[in-house]
Design brief:
The structure is a homodimer.
Chain A: H1 2-11, E1 15-16, H2 19-39, E2 45-51, H3 55-70, E3 73-79, H4 85-97, E4 103-106, H5 116-120, H6 134-141, H7 150-161, E5 170-174, H8 181-188, E6 198-202, H9 209-213, E7 218-221, E8 239-242, E9 246-248, E10 251-253, H10 258-261, E11 267-268, H11 275-294
Parallel strand pairs in A: 1-11, 2-3, 2-4, 5-6, 5-7, 7-8, 8-11
Antiparallel strand pairs in A: 9-10
Helix pairs in contact in A: 2-11, 7-8, 7-11
Pfam families (chains A, B): THF_DHG_CYH, THF_DHG_CYH_C
EC number (chains A, B): 1.5.1.5, 3.5.4.9
Catalytic activity (chains A, B): (6R)-5,10-methenyltetrahydrofolate + H2O = (6R)-10-formyltetrahydrofolate + H(+); (6R)-5,10-methylene-5,6,7,8-tetrahydrofolate + NADP(+) = (6R)-5,10-methenyltetrahydrofolate + NADPH
Chain lengths: 303, 303
Amino acid sequence: MKTLGLGRNEVNKGRIIAGKAIARTVQKEIAAKAARLIQKGIFPKLGIILSGSGPSQIYAHSKERACAKVGIRVETVDFPADVKFEDLKKRVEKWNREKSVHGIIVQMPLPDKVDSARLLGLVDPAKDVDCLTPANLGMLVAGRPRFLPATPAGIVELLVRSQIRISGQRVVIIGRSEVVGKPLANILLLRGKRGDATVTVCHTKTRKLTEISRGADILIVAAGKPRFVKKEMVKHGAVVVDVGINQTDRGLVGDVDFEDVAPEVSAITPVPGGVGPMTVAMLLSNTVAAAAAQTGEADNAGI
Amino acid sequence: MKTLGLGRNEVNKGRIIAGKAIARTVQKEIAAKAARLIQKGIFPKLGIILSGSGPSQIYAHSKERACAKVGIRVETVDFPADVKFEDLKKRVEKWNREKSVHGIIVQMPLPDKVDSARLLGLVDPAKDVDCLTPANLGMLVAGRPRFLPATPAGIVELLVRSQIRISGQRVVIIGRSEVVGKPLANILLLRGKRGDATVTVCHTKTRKLTEISRGADILIVAAGKPRFVKKEMVKHGAVVVDVGINQTDRGLVGDVDFEDVAPEVSAITPVPGGVGPMTVAMLLSNTVAAAAAQTGEADNAGI
């Protein structure tokens, strides 16, 4: 009981990183950039390819709503679950050609029988605002990123806007997925204030994980395991970013045991309301940047 | 003097990884694969684009000799130092089209005024046997590599053929270059026996480097600083891979102080004769694999 009481008091010491509020600020900035383009007759537009029901419907609709708020036009094509690859391909190719479409999203998950990697590979890298094409991931490794993938970029933006220093810090990432862990490691190794970190990537094959995670100044958890990270795994005073979002019978929870860990840290993101809102904001940012780049307005729009 | 004497005795305990001998074995295997293709009338061929004198000449010639030994044809086009970008571009495009050319190398360094990144971006990814195009680097991050870049692939091959376990080990890489550190980190994070490592990347902005490098089961050094790593930076019994090659008044030396470090470790690569020979071998391997893939013989050639 004593520990619990102590924990409750100390939660207030651990600063909660206000993902929602920061995302709102970012969205305001994006709306201003979009407005400058619209004044010049350029209407930033995102095309979303969707197939099948379930989570992909929900994700797509939340992106549509966010676009509407900042002045980005959206066209969603909702294909039936038994869609042929050729039809998806034709839509990608049509939007690749159309000057009025600046960003293209292939909303995951697609039906199992669709070769999503092949479809993604067809998206014009200049319109790949999710930064999922090999060409754009490769530009990132080569140190000349065109776009940054939304979730990793959102994490970095959260840290920077919370005045948390990244350069020279020891960052430990738990999780080596293609959409979070690996691109995030590559971003944090870039030169500059969003990078210059000493980066360690851990995963299911990692031994002595606690020893490693306790060495982190900034611990970023994308393990996909509800409440996986306990206070023993975190250094006192560290910054913890929770990328997980797990549906449990206690509601949505992250990969970090928030109540257990929060008293130990100097800052922590909540779930929900932490990384999530930033992911959508970064997608909007990429779309407006794409519209500006494709129309030669990158400098004028302040992007 | 005592330390020196001890060092000399103990050097024998640290196994020296025989890069040259392993590279010879790999080259024999490549020659056998090339021979199987040649029997079917497929002559693996590498095109090398070269401009300017100095190191690029030396690198290109050593690749030509290595190709000749394993049965790969080479065509080197040696452009004058004041070559126009358009002429280099035309050559890349010609080789992209020619079915008889399976691999294309843009030999670095090119003259300063040539935009090498732009030129590299023009190479057909299927013929990019150096794995330097964004598309191929991105395939690596996405976990579906087409080729692996030669130096990082050579390092991993050295470890695997020396029966050094990678999976689950803590690997620390010193150096975050686009040709070694970053692609190597991405390879070591792939699934399987060449990956599954817990990977940390350190660089000039890293603080407490000694503390981090001492945590490594496998320490890979690509810092570009002669004899930079001393025994204090290495855990007793670790494996040390030295990617450095520095011309000094004492001759060629690596980034590791070999005499100082060798007594402490369970295995170490020498310089020269360690990673260097493997780099060329991996390039040959990629070229033969490219020839097999482009002619539909990937399975038959045992590649």
